[in-house]
Amino acid sequence: MSKFKDRIIQIVRSIPEGKVASYGQVALIAGYPRGAQQVGWILHIAGGENGTPWWRVINNQGKISTKCIEHTPSIQKRMLEEDGIIVAKNLDIDIEKYRWRPSIKELKKLKLDDEYIYVIESKYNH
DNA sequence: GCTATGACAAGGA
DNA sequence: CTCCTTGCCATAG
Questions:
Q1: Is CATH 1.10.10.10 the classification given to domain A3-124?
Q2: pLDDT digit string (tens) for A46-70?
C-alpha cells in the first residue's frame, strides 16, 4: 500500500454525491499537483475498492475518459446519472456546474498547510 | 536503477 | 472547436 494510493483513494471517497472532480483536481487536493495521470492509473487498479466512487472523477474537459473494461464509459455514465448528473450522449458533462468545491474546513482536515490550501482555492473558486 | 506506459493537463497551431 | 506536442510522475518489468 503506497502513501500515494491511500491519499488518492481518501480524496475520491470524499467527493459528495451529485458532484464531480477532474483527475488533476484530485491530484492537487491530495498533495500531488502534477499527478493527474497517476490518479487515472490508481482508479484503474483500485477503483471499486471499499466503495470508492471512481465514477465521480472525469477529465478537465468535462468528458468521461475511462477505457477500463471493468468500468466502461456506459457504466460511468449510468452511475453519474444516478447521482443526478446530466451526461450527454457524447459523454460530455458540464463540469463547472457540477465541480466539487471543498470548503476550507474540509481541506484543513486533510492535513494540508494553509498556504497550499490557498493555492487550491484560488485555482477552482474564481 | 532504468525504460516504458498511461482513466491527464495546458498551451500552441 | 479539433489536433498535436510537451511536461508529468507513480508503477510495472
A1: yes
A2: 877 778 999 999 999 999 999 998 8
